[in-house]
Amino acid sequence: MMRTRPLKVALLGxxxxxxxxxxxxxTHADDLAAxxxxxxxLAGVAVRRPDRVREGIAPExxxxxxxxxxxxxxxxxxxxxxxxxxxxxxxxxxxxxHGASVVSANKALLAQDGAALHAVAEQYGKDLYYEAAVxxxxxxxxxxxxxxxxxxxxxxxxxxxxTTNFILDKMDSTGAGYxxxxxxxxxxxxxxxxxxxxxxxxxxxxxxxxLAGIAFHSRVGLDDVYREGMTEVTAADFxxxxxxxxxxxxxxxxxxxxxxxSVTARVHPAMIPLSHPLASVRGAYNAxxxxxxxxxxxxxxxxxxxxxxTASAVLGDLVAVCRNRIGGATGxxxxxxxxxxxxxxxxxxxxxxxxxxxxxxxxxxAQVATVFAEHGVSIDTVRQSGKDGEASLVVVTHxxxxxxxxxxxxxxxxxxxxxGVASIMRVEGE
Amino acid sequence: MMRTRPLKVALLGxxxxxxxxxxxxxTHADDLAAxxxxxxxLAGVAVRRPDRVREGIAPExxxxxxxxxxxxxxxxxxxxxxxxxxxxxxxxxxxxxHGASVVSANKALLAQDGAALHAVAEQYGKDLYYEAAVxxxxxxxxxxxxxxxxxxxxxxxxxxxxTTNFILDKMDSTGAGYxxxxxxxxxxxxxxxxxxxxxxxxxxxxxxxxLAGIAFHSRVGLDDVYREGMTEVTAADFxxxxxxxxxxxxxxxxxxxxxxxSVTARVHPAMIPLSHPLASVRGAYNAxxxxxxxxxxxxxxxxxxxxxxTASAVLGDLVAVCRNRIGGATGxxxxxxxxxxxxxxxxxxxxxxxxxxxxxxxxxxAQVATVFAEHGVSIDTVRQSGKDGEASLVVVTHxxxxxxxxxxxxxxxxxxxxxGVASIMRVEGE
Lengths: 430, 430
What we know:
Chains A, B: Its cofactor is a metal cation. Chains A, B: Catalyzes the conversion of L-aspartate-beta-semialdehyde (L-Asa) to L-homoserine (L-Hse), the third step in the biosynthesis of threonine and methionine from aspartate. Chains A, B: Belongs to the homoserine dehydrogenase family. The structure is a homodimer. Chain A is an alpha/beta fold. Chain A contains 14 helices and 17 strands. In chain A, strands 7, 8, 9, 10, 11, 12, 13, 14, 15, 16 and 17 form an eleven-stranded mixed beta sheet that branches. Chain A has a six-stranded parallel beta sheet with strand order 3-2-1-4-5-6, with helices on both faces. In chain A, helix 4 packs parallel to helix 5. The first copy, chain A, is elongated. The termini of chain A are far apart. The interface between A and B is large, with 58 and 58 residues.
């Protein structure tokens, strides 16, 4: 049963993702119409540089006045692939006010203002979908929001940034240092000229905030996410990881506390065992591991970025929103009923791998072990090696709180026999 | 905004999955109500043996008259976890006729009668959801139907049967033979007393039919799926696979032909490279690899069976169907608009690994190579080894059609110098 009035789509932004969305809307028009139950047409494309030639897009559709486009009143769905906070936020709000639903790929905006945007969407009875905002083409938002809607999620742990995974994979496989691996990533186009958002974990933190909110039916803001980049990971860390049967990944981890009364969200490099499914995620791929009460351990794997993969996610949302519109329904909105508080990083409980440079003399191990014990941090293994009066101690702990570990390290630094703390790395996935 | 009239659920079947669905509906009632927007209550449970004690289920809800239960007229959603064709099919049809939507975990029924059941659901304006029918807890039906609705899927390749993956993984890791590994699977509860449905590939074939239908928006019946079990896989095959840098998995493969005008669906053991993400799927886990035009390569991984994981999938569907009901909408129905024909196995193009027992004398390789050439099958590598007048030839081909390969093997068998064809195994995932 096909209705004949086409659904009208306004595209905001026509860069790598937007041009691919427009291309697929044209080349796959028949398939989209069949799957939606109505034809869907590109009604306008808002761009910053109107003079650039855009293959396959009729010039009369192109405008620089995005606000006028979303205010037209005949737009069914606004697809926002501009990125950044403004003008995207105002345009999305205006779109809802003028009767459109919205599909967005904007992780920064959703992480910062998701709750407010959902509220406007609900006020106007419209949809806000954003599968493409987290892990590109990988279906993740929909499975977590819908497929696992009858389950209780306890942990979401993932590689959600392809640039940093490419760099870490390169360091792991070639023994390269951070700078060398970053240079290669830049040369190959995997890293931007200014890689800060990726390597300092800002990008992953935005995704962690979105995922934690959805997984735990609570509001988790960007400021709630503990963030540590991966610029200080060294070749020596990878060597240590290998000795542990591990590799190192930049992980976004969202966890429900054991008592179920609070959640945490964090981004940092961590050692994970080679036997863990996330350990074999290579290159710029992303993967997210989800643990729930009933389903157990699930993993979702795929390309986390790029024009085509992101466009695939945008178009999947577009089909869903169009179907909802035809059926007079809306999809799931924000679900924050659980309202669990976000605990600080000090409450996070995990294991640690600590490398210490120490004096090579009797009694050092006893001193160090005493400091751990005084802070309630239980030691799993210790490995001591040394020569010429210098030695190193590698301590792997049992599970301990971040606060206890921080206290331990502060006390260790004050010991005369400890020359320095070479590295502290969390150990996850066991 | 919570409505107060509860949605009523009738549960058909209360075995391993059904009892877990009932348990979670009780223990997570508040969460389900918050996520649905209305409380959901168990209105009746149809069982075969009413005398068995069912913890947490009020005895007055239990009935042996499933038909009367689905005919009550006040049931919002019928959850069918009986399995098999009848009485499940009649009960589902009756449920639609009496105003209920349906959530089913029944792969055999969906594979055989999915189109007819979808037609009845559509006739009555009701939902038919069945995420649990394929790969247990792994969100797969929803991502393929909805997340990838704007993309073009070219291949779905997966490990969709946990029993056979457990057996093959055991053979791979221990060098055990098929029977020994099966015995262990049976002892551990991974294989049923009669393992035919699993080891002969019937279970995987039903899932392949369902997946192919959804992925290609076409009808693919059980009879359209080529099926080869894994009972003849030997320790020698695993040794051959290792030499190739491969392992052996029982794969369900649904492919669009290169010209896009037809599809194929098949289940058989195959060698896949150790570097392929499916190669590292261990034990009874399932994983499905999806390749599409825009998204590229995606993989979905998790437990493919078991009471709790299957219940998770059922409850996810239950939440979705309840939401639809409150919103007066229905989810996506059958999508078979593409109506692509299913090509026979002979048209499938892949690579082959063939082990031949041959006479150890000059000219044998030339004879064998000539037979391949005459049938248009190009050889990638040949490895010859032998002693005492007996020799073996291992031939790995380039991509060739199944028909061409079959013709080649028939001709090889007629050669005096070929004593026997020890094994033929497809090579996938390259």
